[in-house]
């Protein structure tokens, strides 16, 4: 046997031993998976062939598979085992268990963007950071942002005036610019003025990077870094990250300088003093961090970018779906407007500022928003890693697998939600809520790792929708059935076709 043959033979034996050892270590995983129903699998790719196509095809295929296997389903993406569940009690067990507190491995693709921010942080980092960050989301601080919500929504109303009495127009562009202006001011304390500009590099970068990330999550051949970073997608992602990180880093540097040169408030006018004292999340984070737990500039950037992502894109999508609902169902819109008339009286169409107390009284509008999030959950799929075997009664989730909670399917289960694809805000009356399992509705996730900004989001959405309804009547040329809405998932749930509405100026109440 010559030297080359010996080398090749040695490589083959080492490779074979490595492969056998790898599979022996995973025997528990294979045995558990065999007990769970699921579609037929193929060598190497598993069920990855089901997810070939665009992001609309992927969400449709997910819904089809969940309909075929309504309780628990097993799916392999390459060598990764995913177990989907839609039973509220099982969902509760998963979201409350310390064995499933880690976000799924697929979230690692987001870390070049958000690093170890709360959205995707490993459990140990998440626990430490959440403890520090939670005080910045207390109700007093959140309510201090209402004035910012109102100011930016007033600009939105003015910008939309060009569409008066015209054809249907894409409402998301207007809304996303408004929510970006809001989140820039509340999260970073800077005025971006995106609404009054033609172009927004930030929005363009976010749109591009979210499409790339979601595509990579479901395309198993793009999982290995060595392959992904050889593609044109990686180059696009790099450019987006350079802009997004640079933008936040510049703000942090400016904030550091401001902290070192704080203004003397004694001789400052009261209006200017209020603006100086009205602090953004970034200001609070810098002040709350003590010497032992002080955030580095990199950690600050990761947390601020996480807040920016959650505060802008998510609320913009929900607001847009809600505007569609209001335009599509005139009777719902009228009830919302009637509630606003009760709150503001004959000043409902006047430029009267919305106050914190006004926001609290918008109960029917809140139910409309909740029902919108039931039908169109902005985070349609949650994924958690299983770090140790977890018995959830119907099956054992084996260590090394990932558990998938398809929120959109959970929110449309006919056995929980009668006529599940019909819009009915009264599902969220207190008596109705009490009848349902608390984990049958989780638009902001649930358990200890739920979304920290749910109150912030609800307040900002109420102000935006109320501002629009006080000024304009929303309507569509023809009604669309919710079951006919085509959806896609570019990380967030979105409509395939842009949501378009018409607006007409409301007549002032005499």
Automatic annotation (TrEMBL):
Main location per the UniProt record: endoplasmic reticulum
Key words, A-Z: Endoplasmic reticulum, Heme, Iron, Membrane, Metal-binding, Microsome, Monooxygenase, Oxidoreductase, Transmembrane, Transmembrane helix
GO molecular function: heme binding; iron ion binding; monooxygenase activity; oxidoreductase activity, acting on paired donors, with incorporation or reduction of molecular oxygen
Xref: SUPFAM superfamilies: Cytochrome P450
Residue numbers binding heme: 451
Residue ranges crossing the lipid bilayer per the database entry: 6-24
Cofactor(s) the protein needs: heme
Protein's membrane topology: Peripheral membrane protein
Pfam families assigned to the protein according to its UniProt record, in alphabetical order: p450 (PF00067)
Subcellular localization: Endoplasmic reticulum membrane; Microsome membrane
Keyword Oxidoreductase: yes
One GO CC term on file: endoplasmic reticulum membrane
Function: May be involved in the metabolism of insect hormones and in the breakdown of synthetic insecticides.
Family from the record: Belongs to the cytochrome P450 family.
Protein name: Cytochrome P450
């Amino acid at each position: 046997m010559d030297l080359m043959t010996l080398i090749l033979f040695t490589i083959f034996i080492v490779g074979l031993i490595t492969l056998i050892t790898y599979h022996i270590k995973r025997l528990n995983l294979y045995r558990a998976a065999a007990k769970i129903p699921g579609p037929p699998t193929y060598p190497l790719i598993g069920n990855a062939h089901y997810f070939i196509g665009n992001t609309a095809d992927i969400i449709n295929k997910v819904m089809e598979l969940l309909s075929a296997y309504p309780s628990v389903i097993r799916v392999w993406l390459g060598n990764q085992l995913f177990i989907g569940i839609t039973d509220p009690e099982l969902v509760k067990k998963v979201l409350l268990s310390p064995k499933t507190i880690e976000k799924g491995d697929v979230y690692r693709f987001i870390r070049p963007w958000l690093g170890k921010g709360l959205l995707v942080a490993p459990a140990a980092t998440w626990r430490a950071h959440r403890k520090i960050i939670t005080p910045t989301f207390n109700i007093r601080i959140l309510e201090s942002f209402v004035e910012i919500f109102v100011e930016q929504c007033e600009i939105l109303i003015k910008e939309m005036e060009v569409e008066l009495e015209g054809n249907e127009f894409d409402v998301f562009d207007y809304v996303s610019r408004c929510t970006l202006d809001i989140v820039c001011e509340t999260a970073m304390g800077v005025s971006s003025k995106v609404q009054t500009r033609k172009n927004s590099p930030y929005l363009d970068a976010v749109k591009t990077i979210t499409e790339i990330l979601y595509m990579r999550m479901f395309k198993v051949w793009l999982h290995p870094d060595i392959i992904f970073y050889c593609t044109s997608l990686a180059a696009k992602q790099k450019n987006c990250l350079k802009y997004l990180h640079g933008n936040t880093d510049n703000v942090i540097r400016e904030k550091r300088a401001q902290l070192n040169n704080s203004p003397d408030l004694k001789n400052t006018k009261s209006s200017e003093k209020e603006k100086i004292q009205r602090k953004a999340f970034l200001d609070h984070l810098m002040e709350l961090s003590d010497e032992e737990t002080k955030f580095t500039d990199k950690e600050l950037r990761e947390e601020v970018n996480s807040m920016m992502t959650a505060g802008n894109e998510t609320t913009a999508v929900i607001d847009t779906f809600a505007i569609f609902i209001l335009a599509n169902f005139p009777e719902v819109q009228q009830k919302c407007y009637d509630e606003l008339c009760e709150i503001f009286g004959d000043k409902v169409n006047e430029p009267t500022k919305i106050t914190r107390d006004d926001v609290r009284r918008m109960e029917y509008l809140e139910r409309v928003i909740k029902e919108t999030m039931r039908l169109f959950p902005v985070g349609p799929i949650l994924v958690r890693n299983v770090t140790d075997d977890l018995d959830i009664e119907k099956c054992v989730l084996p260590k090394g697998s990932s558990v998938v909670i398809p929120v959109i399917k959970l929110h449309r289960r006919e056995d929980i939600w009668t006529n599940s694809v019909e819009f009915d805000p009264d599902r969220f009356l207190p008596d109705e809520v009490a009848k349902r399992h608390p984990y049958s509705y989780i638009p902001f996730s649930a358990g200890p790792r739920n979304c920290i900004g749910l109150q912030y989001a609800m307040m900002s959405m109420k102000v935006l929708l109320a501002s629009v309804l006080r000024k304009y009547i929303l309507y569509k040329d023809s009604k669309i059935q919710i079951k006919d809405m085509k959806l896609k998932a570019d990380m967030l749930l979105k409509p395939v076709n842009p949501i378009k509405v018409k607006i007409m100026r409301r007549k002032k109440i005499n």
